[in-house]
Amino acid sequence: MAILIFILSLLLFVLTIGYHPDSATTINNLNITKISHEERYQHYLYFPRSERLLYREKAREMFQFGYDNYMKYAFPKDELDPIHCRGRGPDVERPENYNINDVLGEFSLTLIDSLDTLAVMGNVSEFQHAVKLVIDHVRFDRNSTIQVFEATIRVLGALLSAHLLIIDPLQPFGDLKISDYDNELLDLAHDLASRLLPAFERTPHGLPYPRVNLMTGMVDGSRNDTSTAGAGSLSLEFSILSRLVGDPVYERVARRAVNSLWAKRNNVTGLLGLRNYITYDA
């Protein structure tokens, strides 16, 4: 999912520079100081259909280049180290290296992260192939300490999205059905979420601890604070999982975390702080 967001953001940036439907004027020959705010707005608002289609294909090529090289040089590791052109997983020698270890957990992250993007890009055969690779290779019984937020938005969300794309006959991306599919992606999502639940335990106000170990649960010496995004943006994935598996616990803990954050708003501004303490009010 994160790859898709990055590509779409980059695409939007590229496409909106210097095109107007009634003019071939580009940003290089436009005298911005002599046009009104409305003219400037209109200048950046539109671009010709031919250009949109051109850069749509450029975005597709960019994604395919990254995905193909991950599969060639890095799979089944979590991501491609582009400098050394090899796979990379958690930094086991430096557990405090959160920049790497919060995201990478020895579960082929990039492959999972790419599932729904493959569907959106129209690569049906590779989507189906990638799903089978995930089913065959990905397991979450790993001695990896990961961030709950990152695991939720990138892994749990991707697994649920791909599962729904496979089973939903009304989805708009073509025939993504897999003949022998038996809800394996949903089972993986359920397993992952159950391993994230310890982060919500022993929290008097419902805010989750930021990290858990996928094999052992809570980590000794865990931080006593969490970010607003880390605690408050889990509802979509956890609620969908609850509805799909018929277990309300996931939606319940995510909703409790949101309610706890809502209660911590500033009395004057109504705003939330960047960091929120878990075991006491502050």
TrEMBL record:
Taxonomic superkingdom: Eukaryota
Species lineage: Eukaryota, Metazoa, Spiralia, Gnathifera, Rotifera
Alphabetized GO MF terms: calcium ion binding; mannosyl-oligosaccharide 1,2-alpha-mannosidase activity
EC numbers, comma separated: 3.2.1.-
Record-linked InterPro entries: 6hp_glycosidase-like_sf, EDEM1/2/3, Glyco_hydro_47, Seven-hairpin_glycosidases
GO BP: any one term: endoplasmic reticulum mannose trimming
Signal sequence, renumbered to the chain: 1-18
Name of the featured protein: alpha-1,2-Mannosidase
Pfam families, per database record: Glyco_hydro_47
GO cellular component: endoplasmic reticulum quality control compartment; membrane
Location relative to the cell: Endoplasmic reticulum
Record-stated family: Belongs to the glycosyl hydrolase 47 family.
Keywords: Endoplasmic reticulum, Glycoprotein, Glycosidase, Hydrolase, Signal
